[in-house]
Amino acid sequence: MHSSFDPERKKILVTGGAGFLGSHLCGRLLAQGHQILCLDNYFTGSKENIRSFLDHPRFEAIRHDIVHPIDLEVDRIYNLACPASPVHYQFDPVRTVQANVLGVTHMLELARRTKARILQASTSEVYGDPEVHPQPESYWGNVNPIGPRSCYDEGKRVAETLMMDYHRQYRIDIRIVRIFNTYGPAMAPNDGRVVSNFILQALQGNEITVYGDGSQTRSFCYVDDLIEGIIRMMEAPGLTGPVNLGNPEEFTVLELAEKVISLTGSRSKIVHKPLPQDDPTQRRPDITSARESLSWEPKIRLEEGLKKTIAYFEQYGLATKALPVRAARTKQNGNAASRLPTGALRRAG
Ligand code: NAD
Ligand code: UDP
């Protein structure tokens, strides 16, 4: 008789599983032999990202929005469901707050009933525009509570609060990771993030849109490194976090633009556009905690990761012929229709 019982195999829920990070995570966990429930409302994610798993016997896709409760039997919950790029999370800010308050509560209630361990994908945005540099987990941040980024920044902060309160009050087994800017294949080409924008602009010979003077900094982590860190955190005994996960190498946005131009061999020119409100001026993770508690640090340097990402977008560009670039994202420099998330575009007809 066929038996699928394997004591090592876990039933793992990945919310936001059809998104950029979620789809990589599903792939890695499937390869480890687990059973995957991939939950997504396809607001910013895409079936394309999980197409290669759909026929897998240990993979199941569920269309659901975490702002509504759901009951499932699971051992692990990776909660990634939330729009992540500024263009997307500002498209429906009330919904963004709800994903982080109602959605996270529903996932924690699920963890409480099933006794599952739950990991929350938090963000470097909890540090806001940081006055401490680089940012250690002990830094409480400098966040505007009423600005255009607040739905995400404050939403993610209250999500961390809920995680800690469920842990203290109900002894839920929790993990919090604070993810810094991550890039790689399967990023949505229309999400307005800097790496995808610059690569597509360079490949299409369009102007490279640097917001402000380009002196603001970010630290870019390649997706494979990040996924390794997330899984290590989930399986580390007795840790709650928060733990920063990101690449501590820091670049100005202008340096990134120049690197992309040189790696693509593009003739694109750099143009400057207005800096969006509350755009953080600097960001770099202090990853001492991840190094010590998870023996984790990124291995893939920016140039190598960019080459892989450029190869992905080259392939994507060929497959879809003319791929429109969502270059602009502020009211001053944006075209509203071109900034809609994929799900919204689909709904709009
Ligand atoms: P993404 O937009 O590609 O993925 C998010 C996924 O969640 C999408 O598939 C989307 O359809 C789904 N989703 C959104 N709201 C939902 C809801 N209410 N119910 C169900 N599904 C919903 O973004 P990503 O870059 O893959 O980010 C994944 C997670 O990691 C997010 O929580 C984000 O805040 C966090 N994060 C990402 C980065 C990064 O640089 N990529 C940095 C910090 C934090
Ligand atoms: N940015 C830019 N040009 C673009 C997109 C973004 O100069 O076409 C800048 C943006 O203003 C910010 C940085 O790049 O300073 C990173 O932006 P992103 O939206 O990728 O992520 P953030 O870290 O702001 O959430």
From TrEMBL:
<keyword id="KW-0812">Transmembrane</keyword>
<feature type="domain" description="NAD(P)-binding">
    <location>
        <begin position="13"/>
        <end position="309"/>
    </location>
</feature>
<dbReference type="Pfam" id="PF16363">
    <property type="entry name" value="GDP_Man_Dehyd"/>
</dbReference>
<keyword id="KW-0333">Golgi apparatus</keyword>
<keyword id="KW-0520">NAD</keyword>
<dbReference type="GO" id="GO:0005737">
    <property type="term" value="C:cytoplasm"/>
</dbReference>
<dbReference type="GO" id="GO:0042732">
    <property type="term" value="P:D-xylose metabolic process"/>
</dbReference>
<feature type="region of interest" description="Disordered">
    <location>
        <begin position="271"/>
        <end position="291"/>
    </location>
</feature>
<dbReference type="GO" id="GO:0070403">
    <property type="term" value="F:NAD+ binding"/>
</dbReference>
<keyword id="KW-0735">Signal-anchor</keyword>
<keyword id="KW-0210">Decarboxylase</keyword>
<keyword id="KW-1133">Transmembrane helix</keyword>
<dbReference type="InterPro" id="IPR036291">
    <property type="entry name" value="NAD(P)-bd_dom_sf"/>
</dbReference>
<dbReference type="GO" id="GO:0048040">
    <property type="term" value="F:UDP-glucuronate decarboxylase activity"/>
</dbReference>
<feature type="region of interest" description="Disordered">
    <location>
        <begin position="330"/>
        <end position="349"/>
    </location>
</feature>
<keyword id="KW-0472">Membrane</keyword>
<keyword id="KW-0963">Cytoplasm</keyword>
<dbReference type="InterPro" id="IPR016040">
    <property type="entry name" value="NAD(P)-bd_dom"/>
</dbReference>
<keyword id="KW-0456">Lyase</keyword>
<comment type="similarity">
    <text>Belongs to the NAD(P)-dependent epimerase/dehydratase family. UDP-glucuronic acid decarboxylase subfamily.</text>
</comment>
<protein>
    <recommendedName>
        <fullName>UDP-glucuronate decarboxylase</fullName>
        <ecNumber>4.1.1.35</ecNumber>
    </recommendedName>
</protein>
<dbReference type="InterPro" id="IPR044516">
    <property type="entry name" value="UXS-like"/>
</dbReference>
<comment type="pathway">
    <text>Nucleotide-sugar biosynthesis; UDP-alpha-D-xylose biosynthesis; UDP-alpha-D-xylose from UDP-alpha-D-glucuronate: step 1/1.</text>
</comment>
<dbReference type="GO" id="GO:0033320">
    <property type="term" value="P:UDP-D-xylose biosynthetic process"/>
</dbReference>
